[in-house]
Amino acid sequence: MAQVAVHRDDVELDEPTFVDGLPGVGLVGKIAADHLVDSFDMTEYGTVHCDGLPEVAVFQDGEQQYRPPVRIYADAERDLLVLGSDAPVSPNSADEFAGCLCDWLADRDATPLFLSGLGGEKDGVPEMYGVASDGAAGLLDDYGIDPPTQDGVITGPTGALLYRAQRVDLPALGLVVEANQNFPDPEAARVLLLDGIGPIADVSIDTDRLVEQAEEISEARQQLAQRMQEAGEESTSARPMGMYQ
User: Fold this and answer.
1) Which of 28, 37, 128, 245 is the most exposed place for a label (fewest CB within 10 A)?
2) Strands (E), the chain
3) CATH number for 162
4) Contact 22, 85 (CB under 8 A)
5) In terms of residue numbers, what domain contains 96?
6) What's the whole-model pTM score?
7) Rounded to whole angstroms, how far apart are CA atoms 160 and 62?
């Protein structure tokens, strides 16, 4: 049965901000989400068992207990939820996954931030843009987040999440950042954290370690990125509309 199973009823949240950590272009969402979980020592709050997720077990170096591939972490002090994912969602099952997760978020009055990388050539600091559902556009203005400078489309499960949020009247934001198409991009994830997630969630995020360990992070995440490319799976990407015209 498709569901999000909450394991920590003692964690109290009040209209939390939710940060999506699905892997995609540049692995920007995953890198940003992992950094939040590690920096704030967030509690493993629940597990996601929505249709579209691979039925696999994830294990880590030095740990005996394995975990499901997609988990939700919580920080009651910061009123924050973060989706941690060690596996891509199948694009063929994106609509089922999006329905399951968005319905759960709507029941908790959460404000989701869905993250995507825009692959292409970067010149200097990556640019970040924001899009929003009908009920959330004002948030982008409040935090000075620029709209896109070209027509485009957000594909894959993240695109499905944004689409579903609109259908169920869940105020949602999509943050799109320029990112390396073929390699993990900690620099782009840092822009998401400092210019998007931090201000909107009203949290202070130290990204010094992310910068210092950029090469290590890139190497550690490269294997996942390569597996996704070989399988022809991409959890999310933002692309110029002209590619389809």
Assistant:
1) 245
2) 4-6, 17-19, 43-48, 70-75, 80-85, 111-119, 128-132, 152-155, 173-179, 237-240
3) 3.40.50.10900
4) yes
5) 4-244
6) 0.88
7) 36
